[in-house]
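Q: Predict the bound structure with S-adenosyl-L-homocysteine.
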Amino acid sequence: MTVTDLVDKLTLERDLDDGGLESILNCNEPEELEHLYSSARDVSIRHHGNTVHLRALVEWSNVCRNDCLYCGIRCGNASLSRYTLSTDEILDACSRAYALGLRTFVLQGGENPAAAEILAPTVSLIKSFWSDAAVTLSLGELPFETYELLRNAGADRYLLRHETADKAHYAMLHPEGMALENRMDCLRSLKTLGYQVGTGMMVGSPFQSTRNLVADLRFIQELRPEMVGIGPFIPHKDTPLGTYPKGSAELTLKLYSIVRLMLPDANIPSTTALSVIEPEGRIKGILAGANVIMPNFSPLPHRADYAIYEGKASLSLEAEENQKQIEKELHNHGYLVGKDRGDYQEN
Ligand code: SAH
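A: Predicted complex:
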Protein backbone atom coordinates (compact mmCIF):
# COMPACT_ATOMS: atom_id res chain seq x y z
CA MET A 1 0.00 0.00 0.00
CA THR A 2 1.20 3.52 -0.76
CA VAL A 3 1.16 6.17 1.96
CA THR A 4 -1.75 7.79 0.13
CA ASP A 5 -3.71 4.52 0.41
CA LEU A 6 -2.77 4.26 4.07
CA VAL A 7 -4.00 7.80 4.73
CA ASP A 8 -7.29 7.02 2.97
CA LYS A 9 -7.72 3.89 5.07
CA LEU A 10 -6.97 5.83 8.26
CA THR A 11 -9.46 8.53 7.23
CA LEU A 12 -12.18 5.95 6.65
CA GLU A 13 -11.56 3.59 9.55
CA ARG A 14 -10.01 5.99 12.10
CA ASP A 15 -7.41 3.32 12.71
CA LEU A 16 -4.43 1.65 11.08
CA ASP A 17 -2.04 -1.13 12.02
CA ASP A 18 1.36 -0.33 13.53
CA GLY A 19 3.22 -0.85 10.26
CA GLY A 20 0.91 1.58 8.47
CA LEU A 21 1.36 4.23 11.14
CA GLU A 22 5.13 3.83 10.98
CA SER A 23 5.05 4.22 7.19
CA ILE A 24 3.20 7.51 7.51
CA LEU A 25 5.54 8.73 10.27
CA ASN A 26 8.58 7.85 8.15
CA CYS A 27 7.21 9.30 4.89
CA ASN A 28 9.19 12.15 3.32
CA GLU A 29 7.35 12.42 0.01
CA PRO A 30 5.91 15.96 -0.24
CA GLU A 31 2.86 14.96 -2.29
CA GLU A 32 1.92 12.15 0.04
CA LEU A 33 2.39 14.42 3.04
CA GLU A 34 0.18 17.05 1.45
CA HIS A 35 -2.48 14.38 1.03
CA LEU A 36 -2.13 13.52 4.75
CA TYR A 37 -2.43 17.18 5.83
CA SER A 38 -5.34 17.95 3.53
CA SER A 39 -7.25 14.83 4.61
CA ALA A 40 -6.85 15.85 8.27
CA ARG A 41 -7.76 19.45 7.46
CA ASP A 42 -10.96 18.30 5.73
CA VAL A 43 -11.92 16.14 8.72
CA SER A 44 -11.19 19.03 11.08
CA ILE A 45 -13.44 21.34 9.05
CA ARG A 46 -16.18 18.69 8.89
CA HIS A 47 -16.16 18.29 12.69
CA HIS A 48 -15.27 21.78 13.89
CA GLY A 49 -16.20 24.03 10.98
CA ASN A 50 -13.67 26.59 9.78
CA THR A 51 -13.43 27.79 13.36
CA VAL A 52 -10.28 27.91 15.46
CA HIS A 53 -10.71 28.37 19.20
CA LEU A 54 -8.25 30.48 21.13
CA ARG A 55 -7.35 29.61 24.73
CA ALA A 56 -5.66 32.21 26.92
CA LEU A 57 -2.55 30.74 28.48
CA VAL A 58 -1.72 32.16 31.90
CA GLU A 59 1.54 30.80 33.29
CA TRP A 60 0.63 31.17 36.95
CA SER A 61 3.87 29.91 38.57
CA ASN A 62 7.26 28.44 37.72
CA VAL A 63 7.69 26.96 41.19
CA CYS A 64 8.03 23.20 40.69
CA ARG A 65 8.87 20.26 42.95
CA ASN A 66 9.75 18.04 39.99
CA ASP A 67 13.02 17.65 38.17
CA CYS A 68 12.02 16.45 34.67
CA LEU A 69 15.23 16.15 32.69
CA TYR A 70 13.99 18.16 29.68
CA CYS A 71 12.14 21.00 31.38
CA GLY A 72 13.62 24.44 31.99
CA ILE A 73 11.56 25.08 35.14
CA ARG A 74 12.74 21.86 36.83
CA CYS A 75 13.54 22.42 40.49
CA GLY A 76 17.22 21.69 39.81
CA ASN A 77 17.57 24.78 37.62
CA ALA A 78 18.93 27.45 39.94
CA SER A 79 19.46 30.07 37.22
CA LEU A 80 15.83 31.09 37.24
CA SER A 81 13.98 33.46 39.49
CA ARG A 82 10.86 31.81 40.82
CA TYR A 83 7.50 33.58 40.79
CA THR A 84 3.86 32.87 41.49
CA LEU A 85 1.26 35.25 40.11
CA SER A 86 -1.05 36.91 42.60
CA THR A 87 -4.81 36.44 42.31
CA ASP A 88 -5.04 39.99 40.96
CA GLU A 89 -2.44 39.30 38.27
CA ILE A 90 -4.33 36.18 37.18
CA LEU A 91 -7.68 38.00 37.13
CA ASP A 92 -6.13 40.85 35.19
CA ALA A 93 -4.81 38.43 32.54
CA CYS A 94 -8.24 36.73 32.29
CA SER A 95 -9.96 40.08 32.02
CA ARG A 96 -7.74 41.12 29.08
CA ALA A 97 -8.38 37.80 27.40
CA TYR A 98 -12.13 38.05 27.95
CA ALA A 99 -12.19 41.55 26.46
CA LEU A 100 -10.54 40.16 23.32
CA GLY A 101 -13.26 37.50 23.05
CA LEU A 102 -11.48 34.49 24.51
CA ARG A 103 -13.69 32.12 26.50
CA THR A 104 -11.14 29.67 27.90
CA PHE A 105 -8.46 30.50 30.44
CA VAL A 106 -5.66 27.98 30.89
CA LEU A 107 -3.77 28.18 34.17
CA GLN A 108 -0.50 26.33 33.75
CA GLY A 109 2.41 25.96 36.11
CA GLY A 110 4.98 23.86 37.84
CA GLU A 111 3.90 21.07 40.14
CA ASN A 112 3.08 22.52 43.54
CA PRO A 113 1.42 20.48 46.29
CA ALA A 114 -0.23 23.68 47.55
CA ALA A 115 -1.94 24.24 44.19
CA ALA A 116 -5.50 23.72 45.43
CA GLU A 117 -5.03 25.92 48.48
CA ILE A 118 -3.64 28.71 46.31
CA LEU A 119 -5.74 28.30 43.19
CA ALA A 120 -9.18 26.96 44.17
CA PRO A 121 -10.40 30.36 45.42
CA THR A 122 -9.05 32.00 42.24
CA VAL A 123 -10.83 29.48 40.05
CA SER A 124 -14.10 30.19 41.89
CA LEU A 125 -13.62 33.91 41.38
CA ILE A 126 -12.90 33.48 37.67
CA LYS A 127 -16.05 31.39 37.25
CA SER A 128 -18.16 33.92 39.14
CA PHE A 129 -16.90 36.87 37.08
CA TRP A 130 -17.02 35.16 33.68
CA SER A 131 -19.66 32.46 33.87
CA ASP A 132 -19.59 31.81 30.13
CA ALA A 133 -15.88 30.99 30.17
CA ALA A 134 -14.13 27.66 30.78
CA VAL A 135 -11.15 27.13 33.06
CA THR A 136 -8.46 24.64 32.08
CA LEU A 137 -5.73 23.64 34.52
CA SER A 138 -2.29 22.22 33.76
CA LEU A 139 -0.54 21.74 37.07
CA GLY A 140 1.03 18.31 36.85
CA GLU A 141 0.49 15.27 39.05
CA LEU A 142 -1.51 16.04 42.17
CA PRO A 143 -3.51 13.93 44.62
CA PHE A 144 -7.08 12.95 43.74
CA GLU A 145 -8.40 15.22 46.53
CA THR A 146 -6.60 18.21 45.01
CA TYR A 147 -8.05 17.54 41.58
CA GLU A 148 -11.44 17.17 43.27
CA LEU A 149 -11.17 20.48 45.15
CA LEU A 150 -10.23 22.29 41.96
CA ARG A 151 -13.02 20.62 40.02
CA ASN A 152 -15.51 21.61 42.72
CA ALA A 153 -14.17 25.16 42.52
CA GLY A 154 -15.31 25.14 38.88
CA ALA A 155 -12.39 23.95 36.76
CA ASP A 156 -13.64 22.34 33.55
CA ARG A 157 -10.61 20.81 31.87
CA TYR A 158 -7.15 19.51 32.71
CA LEU A 159 -4.06 19.10 30.54
CA LEU A 160 -1.55 16.47 31.59
CA ARG A 161 0.63 15.15 28.80
CA HIS A 162 1.71 11.57 29.31
CA GLU A 163 5.03 12.64 27.61
CA THR A 164 5.79 9.09 26.39
CA ALA A 165 3.79 5.89 26.72
CA ASP A 166 6.91 3.71 26.88
CA LYS A 167 7.96 2.91 30.44
CA ALA A 168 11.70 2.63 29.69
CA HIS A 169 11.65 5.84 27.63
CA TYR A 170 9.71 7.60 30.39
CA ALA A 171 12.46 6.65 32.86
CA MET A 172 15.10 8.21 30.56
CA LEU A 173 13.29 11.56 30.62
CA HIS A 174 12.37 11.73 34.28
CA PRO A 175 14.14 11.49 37.62
CA GLU A 176 13.89 8.48 39.87
CA GLY A 177 10.63 8.54 41.76
CA MET A 178 8.54 9.65 38.79
CA ALA A 179 6.74 6.86 36.99
CA LEU A 180 4.54 6.58 33.92
CA GLU A 181 1.99 4.59 35.94
CA ASN A 182 1.45 7.54 38.33
CA ARG A 183 0.84 9.87 35.43
CA MET A 184 -1.64 7.46 33.90
CA ASP A 185 -3.41 7.09 37.27
CA CYS A 186 -3.73 10.87 37.39
CA LEU A 187 -5.27 10.90 33.91
CA ARG A 188 -7.79 8.28 34.98
CA SER A 189 -8.63 10.25 38.16
CA LEU A 190 -9.18 13.39 36.12
CA LYS A 191 -11.57 11.50 33.82
CA THR A 192 -13.44 10.07 36.81
CA LEU A 193 -13.91 13.58 38.19
CA GLY A 194 -15.54 14.69 34.95
CA TYR A 195 -12.80 16.94 33.64
CA GLN A 196 -12.36 17.20 29.90
CA VAL A 197 -8.89 15.71 29.77
CA GLY A 198 -5.92 16.45 27.54
CA THR A 199 -2.85 14.35 27.11
CA GLY A 200 -0.01 14.18 24.58
CA MET A 201 3.71 13.99 24.10
CA MET A 202 6.82 15.77 22.94
CA VAL A 203 8.05 14.91 19.45
CA GLY A 204 11.73 14.13 19.06
CA SER A 205 12.45 13.96 22.76
CA PRO A 206 15.86 12.36 23.38
CA PHE A 207 15.97 8.58 22.79
CA GLN A 208 12.52 8.54 21.15
CA SER A 209 11.92 6.02 18.35
CA THR A 210 9.14 5.83 15.76
CA ARG A 211 7.89 2.84 17.69
CA ASN A 212 7.56 4.98 20.81
CA LEU A 213 5.37 7.38 18.84
CA VAL A 214 3.16 4.51 17.70
CA ALA A 215 2.82 3.50 21.37
CA ASP A 216 1.83 7.11 22.15
CA LEU A 217 -0.86 6.97 19.48
CA ARG A 218 -2.18 3.68 20.88
CA PHE A 219 -2.30 5.17 24.37
CA ILE A 220 -4.22 8.17 23.03
CA GLN A 221 -6.68 5.89 21.22
CA GLU A 222 -7.26 3.95 24.40
CA LEU A 223 -7.69 6.95 26.72
CA ARG A 224 -9.85 8.86 24.21
CA PRO A 225 -8.90 12.26 25.62
CA GLU A 226 -10.95 15.33 24.74
CA MET A 227 -7.73 17.26 23.97
CA VAL A 228 -4.36 16.20 22.58
CA GLY A 229 -1.32 18.46 22.98
CA ILE A 230 1.72 17.60 20.90
CA GLY A 231 4.81 19.75 20.45
CA PRO A 232 8.41 19.29 19.39
CA PHE A 233 11.09 18.85 22.06
CA ILE A 234 13.25 21.97 22.28
CA PRO A 235 16.47 21.72 24.32
CA HIS A 236 17.00 24.05 27.26
CA LYS A 237 20.65 24.65 28.10
CA ASP A 238 20.20 24.54 31.87
CA THR A 239 18.81 20.99 31.83
CA PRO A 240 20.52 17.56 31.65
CA LEU A 241 19.06 17.03 28.14
CA GLY A 242 20.07 20.47 26.93
CA THR A 243 22.57 19.25 24.33
CA TYR A 244 20.18 16.96 22.43
CA PRO A 245 18.77 18.10 19.08
CA LYS A 246 15.32 19.62 18.80
CA GLY A 247 12.38 17.64 17.44
CA SER A 248 11.16 17.86 13.85
CA ALA A 249 8.39 20.25 12.83
CA GLU A 250 7.39 17.98 9.96
CA LEU A 251 7.02 14.98 12.25
CA THR A 252 4.92 17.12 14.60
CA LEU A 253 2.61 18.07 11.73
CA LYS A 254 2.26 14.43 10.69
CA LEU A 255 1.19 13.60 14.23
CA TYR A 256 -1.43 16.38 14.28
CA SER A 257 -2.88 14.89 11.13
CA ILE A 258 -2.82 11.28 12.36
CA VAL A 259 -4.46 12.22 15.68
CA ARG A 260 -7.08 14.28 13.85
CA LEU A 261 -7.91 11.30 11.63
CA MET A 262 -8.10 8.98 14.65
CA LEU A 263 -10.09 11.34 16.90
CA PRO A 264 -12.02 13.76 14.64
CA ASP A 265 -13.73 15.52 17.55
CA ALA A 266 -10.65 16.10 19.73
CA ASN A 267 -9.43 19.61 20.42
CA ILE A 268 -5.88 19.74 19.11
CA PRO A 269 -3.72 22.85 19.62
CA SER A 270 -1.15 24.03 17.14
CA THR A 271 1.43 24.45 19.88
CA THR A 272 3.71 27.34 20.73
CA ALA A 273 6.71 25.01 20.63
CA LEU A 274 5.94 24.27 16.98
CA SER A 275 5.86 27.97 16.13
CA VAL A 276 9.17 28.47 17.95
CA ILE A 277 11.02 26.03 15.70
CA GLU A 278 9.11 26.53 12.44
CA PRO A 279 8.36 29.75 10.55
CA GLU A 280 4.57 29.95 10.11
CA GLY A 281 4.35 26.91 12.37
CA ARG A 282 1.15 28.11 13.98
CA ILE A 283 -0.85 28.20 10.74
CA LYS A 284 0.87 25.10 9.36
CA GLY A 285 -0.45 23.25 12.43
CA ILE A 286 -4.00 24.41 11.70
CA LEU A 287 -3.63 23.40 8.05
CA ALA A 288 -2.51 19.94 9.19
CA GLY A 289 -5.66 19.41 11.28
CA ALA A 290 -5.22 21.29 14.57
CA ASN A 291 -8.16 23.50 15.65
CA VAL A 292 -6.90 25.40 18.71
CA ILE A 293 -4.29 28.11 19.37
CA MET A 294 -3.15 29.08 22.86
CA PRO A 295 -1.94 32.70 22.89
CA ASN A 296 0.10 33.78 25.89
CA PHE A 297 -1.59 36.18 28.32
CA SER A 298 1.01 35.92 31.09
CA PRO A 299 2.29 39.27 32.37
CA LEU A 300 5.30 40.23 30.22
CA PRO A 301 7.76 40.72 33.12
CA HIS A 302 7.45 37.06 34.14
CA ARG A 303 7.50 35.43 30.73
CA ALA A 304 11.25 34.93 30.52
CA ASP A 305 11.12 33.00 33.78
CA TYR A 306 8.58 30.53 32.42
CA ALA A 307 11.19 29.16 30.03
CA ILE A 308 10.24 25.49 29.85
CA TYR A 309 12.31 25.45 26.63
CA GLU A 310 14.53 27.99 24.89
CA GLY A 311 13.37 30.56 22.37
CA LYS A 312 9.90 30.86 23.88
CA ALA A 313 10.34 34.33 25.31
CA SER A 314 11.26 35.74 21.90
CA LEU A 315 7.63 35.23 20.93
CA SER A 316 6.60 37.64 23.65
CA LEU A 317 4.16 40.13 22.26
CA GLU A 318 1.58 42.10 24.16
CA ALA A 319 -1.62 40.09 24.15
CA GLU A 320 -3.57 42.60 22.05
CA GLU A 321 -0.89 42.82 19.36
CA ASN A 322 -0.55 39.05 19.23
CA GLN A 323 -4.33 38.69 18.93
CA LYS A 324 -4.45 40.92 15.86
CA GLN A 325 -1.74 38.88 14.16
CA ILE A 326 -3.45 35.58 14.88
CA GLU A 327 -6.83 36.78 13.65
CA LYS A 328 -5.31 38.14 10.46
CA GLU A 329 -3.38 34.97 9.79
CA LEU A 330 -6.48 32.83 10.31
CA HIS A 331 -8.66 35.07 8.13
CA ASN A 332 -6.06 34.93 5.36
CA HIS A 333 -6.50 31.16 5.31
CA GLY A 334 -10.30 31.18 5.49
CA TYR A 335 -10.66 30.51 9.21
CA LEU A 336 -12.71 32.32 11.84
CA VAL A 337 -12.03 32.68 15.54
CA GLY A 338 -14.46 30.76 17.77
CA LYS A 339 -16.61 32.94 20.01
CA ASP A 340 -17.76 30.38 22.57
CA ARG A 341 -15.95 28.10 25.04
CA GLY A 342 -15.25 25.52 22.37
CA ASP A 343 -16.00 22.51 24.57
CA TYR A 344 -15.45 18.99 23.36
CA GLN A 345 -18.46 17.75 21.42
CA GLU A 346 -19.13 14.50 19.67
CA ASN A 347 -20.19 15.08 16.11
N1 SAH B 1 3.83 20.97 35.33
C1 SAH B 1 2.84 20.74 34.32
C2 SAH B 1 3.05 21.60 33.10
C3 SAH B 1 4.34 21.31 32.43
S1 SAH B 1 4.79 22.38 31.11
C4 SAH B 1 2.84 19.26 33.97
O1 SAH B 1 3.64 18.53 34.52
O2 SAH B 1 2.00 18.84 33.21
C5 SAH B 1 3.77 21.76 29.82
C6 SAH B 1 4.43 20.85 28.81
O3 SAH B 1 5.58 21.44 28.24
C7 SAH B 1 4.95 19.54 29.36
O4 SAH B 1 3.91 18.62 29.52
C8 SAH B 1 5.96 19.11 28.30
O5 SAH B 1 5.39 18.22 27.36
C9 SAH B 1 6.32 20.43 27.62
N2 SAH B 1 7.76 20.68 27.74
C10 SAH B 1 8.52 20.74 28.86
N3 SAH B 1 9.82 20.91 28.56
C11 SAH B 1 9.89 20.96 27.21
C12 SAH B 1 10.96 21.11 26.28
N4 SAH B 1 12.22 21.23 26.68
N5 SAH B 1 10.66 21.12 24.97
C13 SAH B 1 9.39 21.02 24.55
N6 SAH B 1 8.35 20.86 25.37
C14 SAH B 1 8.59 20.83 26.69
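A: The first helix runs from residue 3 to 13.
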